[in-house]
């Protein structure tokens, strides 16, 4: 089962693209280290305080895939400098 999550996020304290990318790199590297998922910034590359993150997990069951994706989203929510605004799931 392939699960894809697209989450649009706001980074309120970013004053430049460099600050935004520093926050994103810290979050994405932590997600990659802790969970069996792939993660990338997929939209709003040139906007300081907004980003869209894509997360993909592939496992043998929908339950396991959903758990991995939810764990990654919970980790994003644990960072005070970023707020998840819109989140959508897709299943293949």
Globular, elongated, flat, extended or rod-shaped: what is the shape? Answer: elongated
Q: Give the distance, in angstroms, between the N- and C-terminal Cα atoms.
A: 6 Å
| Helical content band | 25-40%
Overall pLDDT metric = 95
Number of strands: 4
| Tally of contiguous helical segments | 2
Read across the widest sheet, the strand sequence of neighbours is 2-3-1-4
Largest sheet: 4 strands, antiparallel
Estimate what percentage of residues fall within beta strands: 35-45%
Based on CA atoms alone, the radius of gyration comes out at 13 Å
SSE sequence, one letter per element: EHEEHE
Helix-and-strand structural type: alpha+beta
Poorly predicted residue ranges: none
Give the topology, please.
Elements: E1 2-10, H1 17-34, E2 38-43, E3 50-58, H2 62-77, E4 83-91
Antiparallel strand pairs: 1-3, 1-4, 2-3
Protein name: DUF503 domain-containing protein
Pfam families: DUF503
């Amino acid at each position: 089962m392939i699960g894809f999550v697209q989450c649009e996020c706001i980074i309120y304290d970013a004053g430049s693209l460099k600050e935004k990318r520093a926050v994103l790199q810290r979050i994405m590297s932590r997600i990659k280290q802790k969970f069996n998922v792939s993660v990338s910034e997929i939209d709003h590359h040139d906007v300081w305080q907004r980003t869209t993150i894509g997360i993909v997990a592939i496992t043998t069951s929908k339950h396991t895939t959903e758990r991995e994706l939810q764990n990654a989203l919970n980790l994003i929510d644990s960072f005070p400098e970023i707020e998840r605004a819109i989140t959508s799931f897709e299943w293949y």
